[in-house]
Amino acid sequence: MKTRILMGLLAVVIAGLIAVPWIASYFYIFILTEILILGLFAASFNLIFGYTGMLSFGHAAFFGIGSYATALVLIHLEWPFLACLLVSMGASALLALVIGFLSVRLNEVYFAMLTLAFGMMVFAIAYQWRSVTNGSDGLAGFTLGSFGLGLDLTLGNPAVYYHVVLAIVAIAAVVLYLICRSSFGMILKAIRQNPERVSFAGLNVRTYRLVAFVIAGAFAGLAGGLIAPFLRVASPELLHWSMSAEPVLMAILGGTGYFLGPFVGSAVFVLLETWITSFTESWMLVLGIILAMMVIFFRKGLLGTALDWWMEVKK
Amino acid sequence: MSGIGAALLNSLDIGLLLFIIAVGLNIVFGVLNIINFAHGALYMLGAYLAFTLINLVGMPFWAALLLAPIGVAILAVIIDRVLLKFIYSRDVADSLLLTFAILLIINESVRVIWGSGIQVVQPPQLLSGSVELLGSSVSTYSLFVIVVGLLLLAGLWYLFNRTRVGRIMRAAALDRDMAEALCINTRMVVTGVFAFGAWLAAVGGVVAAPMRALDPGMGDKIIIESFIVVVIGGLGSFPGALLGAIILGLIHGFGGRYLPEVNLLLPFLGMALVLLFKPNGIMGKGATA
Hints:
heterodimer, A: mainly alpha, B: mainly alpha, 11 helices, 2 strands, 72% helix, globular
């Protein structure tokens, strides 16, 4: 019964998201586009944190590379948007393979330090390699052409772009969900709970971690590819560790133990950011305080705490 | 020849400064089993407090060198007693997340209190000149940094190997339950070690202040450098921190002089190289999962 109510709620939310361009102003369309893209970014992060138990502080590297890849392909090759996104996913997956190869074999503490350091390495490259990345200014001035697949879409229209983002994020979320539910996903969960046991069962923990890391990188790259045309720029800030902090916060905020947690976290995060930055510059300060409070008191996140409460009350 | 001599001295002062920071990170990790992401923020706080004491209050540099780290250590005691106490018994991820939150809070507070602009601290009169050494002119302040680094190195060695306090710290690092059973108040040790680590970071910050301009991003730079140091040297290893810091110092000292175009990349390449062949660091052990 309760699962049915929750499923119904989810269906209502999805129907609402589809209908948004006809009922809301451009301001909300922009906010929702951002929520969806960052939600996908956070969900990809949660595949390695919430499911596999590896806390990465360098996830922005893959997000940023994805946005640079799309920007570069649009500027130099003018391919259809869908092809750009595939290039983004491929580039991020490749980078994740290299960074992951060096990082996943070490324990959690090392992993956190290494992902942060390698993430900043990618930032340093984007910052210094001016001939390709245009340094601190980033890449701008690219325009979206066709979408691909023979679809005739005016991607420059925010409402159309919102629907494209919604469709792609929804498909990506379903794929991620299926991965989490598959036997592969179950093994990842088992690795989080007890890596030793998993390796005693004859499975190669390192390989599983690496594959999870690469998948997460690819989806972060997809999110990055979606954000570049939305922001109209691919800049080094997208690679900085303060960007890596965002999916961490979103996942914690929503709840790392739930597939939809990061999406809820992304919604709360973006709405809070929009609201708070309207009267103070110190958004990061508020963020730090919220993160500390969530970690100390609400480790299950908003979604987890709410679900627990609802299951408890309505028995 | 003089170029190499200057690069060598430069490497040494960068290396010893990094050692001061990284060894604090290591000591805290050894006893508390957490990596303090806010360590670089505490370093920055030391530098900014010194800036306030010297430029706004008008104290001499030496008084700031004494007082600013004590101030930061007191803050660390508060952080430990108010925030960290919740997560000591929890999963490692929680401690990483919480210190990361503290990093965000301190970083933004510095921006609010001191502004985003660059601030400068002058070295004391006594150390503002330069001397002839190894055929090139070296600033006296560089030599001062080297001396402070060596003094702290010797002091820490003495503390851990020859004093009762040091032995208690090592006991708590090895086996906290056993130390508790031997009537050691490990809760006090934990607070003390965390404050000591913060003190070291802040000493590094005050010493670095006249060498480098102060800006709110300085903590981020140093924490990434110290991570590279402990990864190269081996997490939790005292000689490893020294070795890693000297290696990174050499990379900076020589890389900045001879390979300026890839300067920013070199530390990461060095780290990747060590990870390929010695995943636990040159002196570390037992971190592979």
